[in-house]
Design brief:
Shape: elongated
Number of helices: 16
CATH class of the largest domain: Alpha Beta
CATH topology of the largest domain: Rossmann fold
Largest sheet: 6 strands, parallel
Structural class: alpha/beta
Number of domains: 2
Strand order of the largest sheet: 5-2-1-6-7-8
CATH superfamily of the largest domain: Crotonobetainyl-coa:carnitine coa-transferase, domain 1
Strand content: 15-25%
Distance between the termini: 34 Å
Number of strands: 13
CATH architecture of the largest domain: 3-Layer(aba) Sandwich
Length: 412
Amino acid sequence: MTQGALGHIKVLDLSRVLAGPWCTQILADLGADVIKVERPVVGDDTRHWGPPFLQDAQGNDTQEAAYFACANRNKRSITLDLAQVQAQALVRQLALQSDVLVENFKVGGLKAYGLDYESLKAINPRLIYCSITGFGQTGPYAQRAGYDLMIQAMSGMMSITGRADDVPGGGPQRVGVALTDLFTGVYASTAILAAIEVRHQTGTGQHIDMALLDVGMATLANQGTGFLNTGRVPQRQGNSHPSLAPYQDFVTADGSMILAIGNDGQFARFSEAAGQLHWTQDPRFASNALRAQNRLALVQVIEEVTRTRSTSEWITLLEDRAVPCGAINNLAQAFSDEQVQARKLVLQQDRGHRQVGAVEVISTIASPVRLAQTPPVLRCAPPALGEHTDQVLAELGLDEQQIAALRQQGVV
């Protein structure tokens, strides 16, 4: 099936930046027809979030930000000025034909345009309407704007990320990507798929209320549950794990490597490979709980040994013994890794048009979803601003003269 698992689904995307577009790109990769509505002239905020910018065939920076490209593959872009009545009417027409609408306006922001859930539900009861905000539709913070960095700080994620205060470089750190935005996109797409399944049974859609703060709290996972059940506030501890040992980075003869030992069998095999089988007999290291309790002593004796071989030598030695280990790659090394290449995780898409100064080929990271019968599909590269406006409006029944008039009036 070349149309993908969601080839029968149409999504109206009123979202911008990352959480919403990440959600709709997941749906688009699975085959959904996603129509992305952007502001005329300006477009999605992330079109301007650079550097880095995409480069043309000569290696020169363009005005197209790479940030936008990461979350907008397989979508059709149209421009509409939602402040104008005619544009609002066009959105209602699109919503009437859509299965799903995703938006991340401030709470109540679309009600003034008659584009809120209750208004659109009245004309399309089957519509699944997903709102993504910083703090949700209810509660004392509902009217606040929310960005990923704020949520990483407020949720406590930054308090458990980074090195401890008493070591060099210590202090709270954000994760290197907008983790809360990305997880919100994943949770939102999951909620939408659940709502589609419910609609099969009931015939009606529903409103989905997604909040970055809710997701930020949910992704605390074992750290959050540990606090709730013990009352102990977890602390930053760099790359080590609060519940496992050894499970962190170790210095080698030419750099560093990761050891990710999750059980006593793996520790025994590592000890044997390192020529230190007596570690398994040491009462301080006899079980994972004891190793975690005596982490400082364990790390010291292990690092004395890991310094004696290079990272690649350790990986070769330990892989044969099923001991989880690996190099700490930069992005160039990661994308050149043979496993990454074997899984075809880099996509190159021809944009199919030749504007002067435009990027002709865009590289993005492939969907990690591997469905045997209905795999993700590639239809179009991240679109130019308003690239599909005429096409989509024609599908609504507008002729060339009507579209030209809307463009002259600044509606599109």
